Amino acid sequence: MTTHGRDADGGPAHVLAQLGAALAARSYAVRGVPVRDETIRVILVDDHTLIREGVRVLLQAAPDIVVVGEAECRDAALELARRVVPDVVVLDLDMPGGDGESALAELRRQVPEAHVLILTMYPEQTRLVPLLAGGARGYLTKAAASRELVEAIRVVAAGEVYVRPAVARLLAAAVSPHGTAVTAHERFRTLSDREATVLRLVAEGYSGAEIARQLGVSTKTVDAYKHRIHDKLGLQHRTEYVRFAIEAEILGA
């Protein structure tokens, strides 16, 4: 699967929407990407030593993945990638000496054989689309790394694109066939009345228990609504709820 094609109108937005739709149709939760016959050679690029150490330890459990180098800044990453030509570059977005987006562009230009997987603290809603358009083959938040990083590396090494399932659905829904971003308010209208109420209350700062009391339901039911909101809009943390609610202009509604 590739992001390099263009739609009939020549716009990349429709291509990204098609990519999101195709990824959303795949059963990420159960696909169980198998161990590869060939070793996947990976370099880690992050300016935090502890992060690199943690990722390296995590990947040691995968028999088909080997870390062949590490770098803490863009220039070192480019030099290392040119020298070892890895299968996958796991790339942070915030580094001294240049940001991850410029590093991505240079990696794609200088070492096109290497597939780049973004591993970052930023939620997908803030950075995903331009990075995919720029040639990244995958995007994963650090919060999800312990559960999904090994699988993401295997997918990216195979030349496929990896994003979390809910984000794939968000990508498919957030870009229209004509390349125009759907507004937050329009996305908000895809929620049921109860889901919309839960979203607004979370954004206003209420806890799950407080929302349950207000709605006369159990906390498990509130959690179920949150899961549906996550599936439809990709929201997980309260800060994401607040940002979305501001964009959708529904706080205090």
- Taking all Cα atoms into account, the compactness measure Rg is 19 Å
Number of strands: 5
CATH superfamily of the largest domain: Response regulator
Quaternary organisation = single chain
**SS summary, helix count:** 13
**Quick one: biggest sheet?**
5 strands, parallel
N-to-C CA distance? 42 Å
Q: What count of structural domains?
A: 2
Within the largest sheet, what's the order of strands? 2-1-3-4-5
The best one-word shape is elongated
Overview of this protein structure:
By secondary structure, this protein is an alpha/beta fold. It has 2 domains: 12-174, Response regulator (Rossmann fold); 184-248, Orthogonal Bundle (Arc Repressor Mutant, subunit A). It is 53% helix and 11% strand. It contains 13 helices and 5 strands. Helix 4 runs parallel beside helix 5, helix 8 packs across helix 12 (219-233) and helix 10 (193-203) packs across helix 13.
Q: Which SSEs are present, and which pair or pack?
A:
Layout: H1 12-24, H2 28-31, E1 40-45, H3 49-60, E2 65-71, H4 74-84, E3 88-91, H5 100-110, E4 115-120, H6 124-133, E5 138-141, H7 145-157, H8 165-174, H9 184-188, H10 193-203, H11 208-215, H12 219-233, H13 238-248
Parallel strand pairs: 1-2, 1-3, 3-4, 4-5
Helix pairs in contact: 1-8, 4-5, 8-12, 10-12, 10-13, 11-12
Note the main attributes of this structure.
253 residues; Rossmann fold; Arc Repressor Mutant, subunit A; 53% helix; elongated; disordered N terminus
